[in-house]
From TrEMBL:
Domain Glycosyl hydrolase family 31 C-terminal: 586-668
Pfam families noted in UniProt: Gal_mutarotas_2, Glyco_hydro_31_2nd, Glyco_hydro_31_3rd
Top-rank lineage group of the source organism: Bacteria
Domain Glycoside hydrolase family 31 N-terminal residue range list: 55-221
All copies of domain Glycoside hydrolase family 31 TIM barrel, residue ranges: 263-578
A GO molecular-function annotation: alpha-D-xyloside xylohydrolase
PANTHER family: GLYCOSIDASE FAMILY 31, MYOGENESIS-REGULATING GLYCOSIDASE
Broadest EC class assigned to this enzyme: hydrolase
Organism: Blautia faecis
Lineage: Bacteria, Bacillati, Bacillota, Clostridia, Lachnospirales
Record Gene3D superfamilies: Glycosidases, glycosyl hydrolase (family 31), Golgi alpha-mannosidase II
Keyword Hydrolase: yes
Protein name: Alpha-xylosidase
Keywords: Glycosidase, Hydrolase
Family affiliation: Belongs to the glycosyl hydrolase 31 family.
Length: 675
């Protein structure tokens, strides 16, 4: 959100109260407080009729320092709040030097330090003694809108050439410099600036990350309003953020996920090929069997079959009951599929349509989200008269889980937790949470509710979701997929950008709709997307109005799908080792080039290729003529499939058939003997 009109002026609709002075510092047992009025204090009279920001400094973990700012402490609601881990009561090491009537304070946590002095609003962060960033004058304060809204704004300076990555799944350019990013979950497809997974965390090429610990709308101006600053603001009276020192991107991600949570380890079968019924297609058991038969006849390994929305009757999502007209014997059907070696996934969402038999039950028991007037909140977007399950109510969570348990009891293995973004703010939550802050946080409670049930009923090693929306900490409940793309090359490319941006934001596992979701797409696109999809952490064939079985395109598509599915299984020992690393350290399975090679300036903007772990370079083909440009970092590389050598530290151009793509490992890598 923008507040200024150039360097000197504030926009007409705002009045600015900037922090002008750190007036006094007070030591507490596990924290340090600094009091910063909105006026330079030169005499006793200056302490009257002005506001003041209170800073609280903490050290939640090694190499992490926190700054909590509050204007009016009685005017903000603390819940909900993200679950954080680590030594949360730890105090930063602190030292005070006094000279010329001023106090110079130094706070340390590991190799990260912060310095400031009384009489000035400026602060500086150092990593290993090297200046990382700073808070300048006219950076932090309150912006008062003429209509009564108050915004707390702060920010950190950018250095020359410093690049910013992260902020969740974003389909815009991967380098965020110059962008305005609002952290606000919305359902907008992959072709827009809005996102299903908004994460107020970024890191930069200077070796530090920043996590803004606020569940509501956080507006980032990334070198945009002020080109020298990453500015963040909230319509609130308080704001907290943590600076995390790496210095490498992988170390920053490891420390960030130690603070916000590490991904669970998905079961091995989840890494195989998933096939779905698609969204609006007609299907019954015979249709599903025809798909499975087709895969078996063509010797294409299939691991998971997914039933999308219409396993339930239309207008009744969710009733959690199989459509008896199409599936008269669900338990028997799922048993038959299990005997064929398949795991079963079914689609769900957190909404209860008015026609669903469960609506009245949930309304009577108070399990649906309410309006301020005590009536159930409803609308007709998606399902007629639908309400939202209020997951702040423990009884509503148990009720929701009981409906899902009944599905597990008849043979369902996992759930696709769709939606969770369309959450209103003119409502009243069971636990009294701030409605604005609950908008983004809702998806965390939703996916946590489902994931905890799967852990309880299936065992921790078998729990896995296929989720669309997310908030910080949502990485603990894998897997997430990229949302609704179109069947075009440009959408395939933006899908990859979104995934890499999500990996930059602390998520370990990711998938996408192979072939694109909307429209049918060409056989050419399908075959190229198959290669990309089977070289992602998780791989799913899914569409909207047509089946995504390969023979709907051509028989060569069947051969391509078979080839890359078998290739992934050959790579599974390596991929699963990456999954274990993601679980233990938070490092993503798929990594942006700049994350793995931060010192190689050629990698800084690369968004059409990535690293599968630390050893395999993947560059999907994004053109119908099979030509693809790609970059190899320094060293000697070998194509994993053809065994042809290639020199690093330079760009290459190649033409690839449907059974190949730029896929490189280092010379001498043991994977060359596996493939």
């Amino acid at each position: 959100m923008k507040f200024t009109n150039g360097f000197w002026l504030v926009r007409d609709e705002f009045q600015a109260d900037y922090v002008r002075d750190i007036y006094e510092v007070e030591e507490r047992e596990n924290e340090l407080l600094a009091f910063a009025p909105y006026k330079q204090i030169q005499g006793r009279g200056d302490t009257l009729n002005i506001g003041m920001m209170t800073y609280t400094f903490t050290a939640p973990a090694k190499d992490i320092l926190g700054i909590h700012m509050v204007n009016h402490a009685g005017n903000y609601v603390k819940s909900p709040s993200f679950e954080l881990y680590g030594d949360l009561d730890k105090s930063p090491e602190r030292k005070c030097e006094k000279a010329s009537g001023k106090e110079k304070w130094t706070l340390k946590s590991g190799k990260l330090s912060l310095e400031f002095e009384t009489g000035s609003p400026e602060m500086k962060f150092y990593g290993d003694g090297r200046e990382l960033t700073c808070i300048k004058s006219k950076t932090t304060g309150m912006m008062h809108h003429k209509q009564g809204m108050n915004y707390l704004v702060s920010g950190l300076n950018l250095g020359v050439g410093e690049l910013v990555y992260g902020l969740g799944e974003r389909f815009t350019p991967m380098v965020k410099n110059g962008q305005t990013v609002d952290i606000w979950n919305e359902d907008g497809g992959t072709a827009s600036e809005i996102s299903y997974k908004n994460i107020p965390f970024y890191y930069t090429t200077k070796g530090y990350g920043v996590f803004v610990n606020h569940p509501g709308r956080v507006s980032f101006e990334v070198g945009s309003e002020k080109v020298e600053t990453v500015q963040f603001s909230v319509e609130d009276e308080e704001l907290e953020y943590f600076v995390i020192y790496g210095p490498t991107p992988l170390e920053i991600i490891e420390k960030y996920t130690a603070l916000t949570g590490r991904p669970a380890l998905p079961p091995k079968w989840s890494f195989g090929l998933w096939l779905t019924t698609s969204f609006t297609t007609n299907y019954d058991e015979a249709t599903v069997n025809s798909f499975i038969d087709g895969f078996e006849q063509r010797h294409i390994p299939l691991s998971v079959f997914h039933f999308d929305c219409f396993w339930m009757k239309g207008f009744e999502w969710c009733n959690f009951t199989w459509d008896k007209d199409m599936f008269p014997d669900p338990a028997g059907m799922l048993e038959r599929f299990h005997k064929r070696g398949l795991k079963i996934c079914v689609w769900i969402n957190p909404y209860i349509a008015q026609k669903s038999p469960l609506f009245g039950e949930a309304m009577e028991k108070g399990y649906l989200l309410m309006k301020d007037n005590g009536r159930v909140w409803q609308w007709d977007m998606w399902q007629a008269g639908m309400g939202l399950v209020d997951f702040t109510n423990p009884d509503a969570c148990s009720w929701y889980q009981s409906k899902l348990k009944a599905l597990l009891d008849v043979g369902v293995d996992c759930f696709k937790t769709d939606f969770g973004e369309r959450v209103p703010t003119n409502v009243k939550w069971f636990d009294g949470s701030d409605p604005e802050k609950m908008h983004n946080y809702y998806t965390y409670l939703y996916n946590q509710c489902v994931f905890e049930l799967l852990k309880k009923e299936k065992g921790e090693s078998e729990a896995v979701l296929f989720a669309r929306s997310a908030a910080p900490g949502g990485q603990k409940f894998p897997v997430h997929w990229g949302g609704d793309s179109t069947s075009q090359y440009i959408s395939m490319a933006e899908t990859l950008r979104g995934g890499l941006s999500l990996m930059d934001s602390g998520f370990g596992f990711w998938s996408h709709d192979i072939g694109g979701f909307e429209d049918d797409g060409s056989a050419d696109l399908y075959k190229r997307w198959v290669a990309f999809g089977l070289l992602s952490s998780h791989s799913r064939l899914h569409g909207s109005s047509s089946y995504r079985v390969p023979w709907n395109y051509d028989e060569e598509a069947c051969e391509v799908l078979k080839y890359f599915t078998e290739l992934k299984w050959k790579l599974m020992p390596y991929i699963y080792s990456l999954a274990q690393t993601a679980h233990e350290k938070g490092l993503p399975v798929m990594r942006p080039m700049h994350m793995q090679y931060p010192k190689d300036r050629n990698c800084a903007y690369l968004d059409q290729q990535y690293m599968l772990g630390d050893r395999i370079l993947v560059a999907p083909v994004f053109s119908s003529d099979g030509k693809q440009d790609f970059y190899l970092p320094e060293g000697n590389w070998v194509h994993l499939l053809t065994k042809e050598p290639a020199q690093g530290n330079q760009w290459h151009t190649g033409t690839f058939d449907y059974f190949s793509l730029p896929l490189y490992v280092r010379e001498g890598d043991p994977l060359l003997k596996v493939i």
